[in-house]
Amino acid sequence: MQTTPVKSSNVRAIGYDESKRELRVEFHSGATHDFLGVPPEKHREMMAADSKGRYFHQHIRDSFAQRKMGLPPQQDEAGTSEPRPRLQRVPLKGSNPELTEYYEPIAEAGGAASPEAALGEAVKRYQERPEKPGR
Q: pTM score > 0.70 for this model?
């Protein structure tokens, strides 16, 4: 995904893939995050915002599933220099707290290929849980 450098004390560059609805945010720290399911208007609003960092924190960071692409590229076991994506925890706002208990460990351990897969696995585990007395 191609990124555009921006003027910001926190954000180095921003990219957007409209066909995948993925927003890429590269930080001055070297970390890169891809946010999934981001509508095109959110990308346009962020690019137009006076403060990219403030817009990011208020409208993107905790609102969309994300993949942390890592720090600057390093060679992995296969000799590639592309950072490996790692699924980040996504808050399940307004959801069943018991389901969140199943989801968070899967997401934090990177035990799924995507946020959707992690949620699917959490639902499956939740549905297969042993019945507690009084339920």
A: no
